[in-house]
Specification:
The longest helix has 52 residues. Helix 11 packs parallel to helix 14. With 503 residues, the chain is mainly α. It contains 17 helices and no strands. Helix content is 84%, strand content 0%. The chain is globular and about 70 Å long. The two termini are 29 Å apart.
Amino acid sequence: MTRKSRHDLMLDVVKIASARYLTRALLLVKTVVVARVLGPAEYGLIGLIILIPTYGRWTDLGLLGGLVRKLPVLGRTLEDRRERRRLLETATASFTLLAVLVTLGVVVAGVVEDDPEVRACLWLAAAVIPAQGIYSFVQNYHRARQEFGIVARSVAILELSGLVYTLVLVFWIGAPGFFLALLLSNITACVYLGLTYHRHDGVVGLRWDWTRTIQLLLAGFPLASTTIMHTLCLSMDRVVMSRVATREMVGHYMLALLVSGVIQYVPTSVGFILFPVLRERAGGGRADAKTIHRYLTEPTETVAWVMAFFIAVAVVCLPAVPLILPAYRPGLEPARILTQFTFFLAVGTVARNHLAALKAHWKPLLIFQTAVTAITPGVVYLFLIGRTGEVGVATGMGIVYLIYGTGTLAIALRTCGIGFGRIVLSICWAAAPAVYLAFALAAIRAIIEAVGVVDLHAALLGLALLVPASVPLVAGLVVRTPVVPLVKQAWQARRKRVYSAEG
């Protein structure tokens, strides 16, 4: 497998991010229709049941992560090809067993549920687990081979088919239709991935090899454990709300999760690309401290300055949401708060992948994640019962995002062989866009309130005021990140390819 340049890596990031943002735009349309048709109560039910397939993504317990670690370092010798086959067959057999066991557990839980609608949602959510498992298995195979074009197309197929299925089935059978659509879209994407897997000499077969199963679990445990803990931490808000809040409150709060989830796709795409690359270079022991530091700080600062633009636009456009979703007006303030704090969660994304890729440094991250996850329910509950409702939950989770993101970055920077002063300085540079953005958005909001406009007019005025306010953000992007040189390189490479084709 050839090593990729920074230019190629950025093109991969753009490829994945473009596919995800295109499909995220479609997902936004789908979510708006679902929220409007079902109303806050049923939409809140979806927000709670969706935790089942969310947690179900990790039924492999690290097997897929083990593949992502091991496949990139295998060569092209006959023995390496045989080992690749043995690993894939072993992972297939072990993952199938785990997925069946977890799915049966959720089905049994649905049997004892009295509410027919909830029971139907549980059973359909259970069926999603093996379907999304197959999707993840083949997608991770292509990801380990750095075939990100196939990964991007699979994401597009998943979301496009999901949009069509959801729009039909939610109108037909309500909330259960959402999970049936999720099941069908995963099956559709699996058909495409199955064809690409076959064309790329993918291994089909089962092998009960407990020694290699343990090897894969141990290899994937750093990534799996840290990602599982990450998922648990970020879902604690809904876990707490499921015990003490109404479905309507959960539905209103889902607006905040929707907006913050959309803007999270840039850092997620960066981490998705960098993990197998860091594993190939640093995991194999070939990278020095300077290289590791560059592959941490450059993407982190780039994410920080780029995310500031996305967050600013999202926040100033929020007043227009009631024109489409009038029943969700109580969710506007939680969405504003959580979206701004999402900046810190995004800044820590590259750091998490960095620590998981460097085998010796995942343990401090796991300990830190466990500590943050342990305090999250208490923080959320205290703000929730403080007579602030959804706003309190968003504030509590925002504080968690701040602690989690900056703490993860600090732990990652310690692996680069730099002193305490440089660590603090690096965190300050990464947080600088958020500090400026907080003041800029507060000033814009004060002007809008002074003028007295609301809804669409407030959003339009906010966008107009955001144009001059974005000048420092543009300056920071140019000065502190390699975006401009990389764009120039991409343009020059494109012109060379065009001239070569014409010649």
